[in-house]
């Protein structure tokens, strides 16, 4: 499946009062190669394995394959991952007919807050709430696979 | 799950007359890092995703996680893999209470023939038929992940 996503920094955290749902995420990488990223994630009490291919030239679309796996398997596989998983809390905030996913990073990435919106077409219009900051779609520094090896507190 | 395996070169191919079953395998790698290898495989009409951790110091045991996935997913994921999948035919040959898997490589690895036997304990005795050659357990050159990047015809 091809995902079309746009990504932004978040300017004020007061947006979180509108969160409909929040989940705790831990994730690590078996490969951080942008052409074949392999991610292990726990999200609350579930496990997932996700493989992503190269981004399109504008950075907005990317092949993505995801499979739910048992939580215990994900916890075992996290031990194989590159050092220091990423910890974050993901909040879902509705905006018109879309939903923003706001990732509030913790630990070595505390201070980093990213909003993502998934679109059906690259040119589909969407609401831009006033807490939405600079667009970083396609900027490799904001790939979680990059952040896993280069935490925000080293930027 | 931890796998205990010993691996050998094969001296004569006449052992193949004893094959009980043979399967055609294509496989590629999303990560060839020996501490976190990620393999995509098609085996006849099935797909598999396999993740392996580091080997034990003697090379005979290794954490392995495997999941069957739809064949079409495996074919899509093979396109993301590092260049040139490995092609081989695997023959199963019984020997006492064990079964040898004999991999006859093709393409850039033609000429390479490897036998593997899975054991329950590292010191478990097993039959050594006369076609069994030099032991290569733990020799990283005979990891398929190494062969994928360094085909036998370049050795």
Write the layout of secondary structure elements.
Two copies of one chain form a homodimer.
Chain A: E1 2-10, E2 21-31, E3 36-43, E4 46-55, E5 61-69, H1 71-80, E6 86-95, E7 98-105, E8 113-119, E9 132-135, H2 144-149
Antiparallel strand pairs in A: 1-5, 1-8, 1-9, 2-3, 2-6, 3-4, 4-5, 6-7, 7-8
Question: What report would you give on this structure?
Answer:
2 copies of one chain form a homodimer. The first copy, chain A, is mainly β and 155 residues long. Chain A has a single domain, classed as Hypothetical Protein Pfu-838710-001, CATH 2.40.320.10. In chain A, 10% of the residues lie in helices and 49% in strands. The first copy, chain A, contains 2 helices and 9 strands. Chain A has helices at residues 71-80, 144-149; strands at residues 2-10, 21-31, 36-43, 46-55, 61-69, 86-95, 98-105, 113-119, 132-135. Chain A has an 8-stranded antiparallel beta barrel. The longest helix of chain A has 10 residues, at 71-80. Chain A is globular and about 40 Å long. The termini of chain A are far apart.
């Amino acid at each position: 499946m091809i995902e079309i996503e746009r990504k932004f920094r978040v300017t004020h955290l007061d947006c979180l009062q509108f969160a409909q749902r929040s989940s705790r995420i831990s994730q690590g990488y078996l490969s951080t190669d942008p052409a074949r990223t392999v991610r292990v994630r726990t999200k609350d009490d579930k496990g997932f394995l996700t493989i992503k291919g190269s981004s399109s030239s504008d950075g907005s679309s990317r092949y993505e394959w995801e499979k739910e796996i048992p939580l215990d398997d994900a916890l075992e596989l996290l031990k194989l991952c590159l050092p220091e998983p990423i910890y974050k809390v993901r909040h879902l905030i509705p905006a018109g007919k879309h939903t923003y996913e706001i990732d509030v990073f913790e630990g070595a990435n505390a201070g980093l807050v990213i909003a993502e919106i998934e679109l059906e077409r690259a040119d589909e219009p969407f609401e831009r709430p006033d807490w939405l900051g600079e667009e970083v779609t396609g900027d490799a520094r904001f790939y979680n696979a990059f952040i896993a090896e280069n935490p925000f507190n080293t930027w």
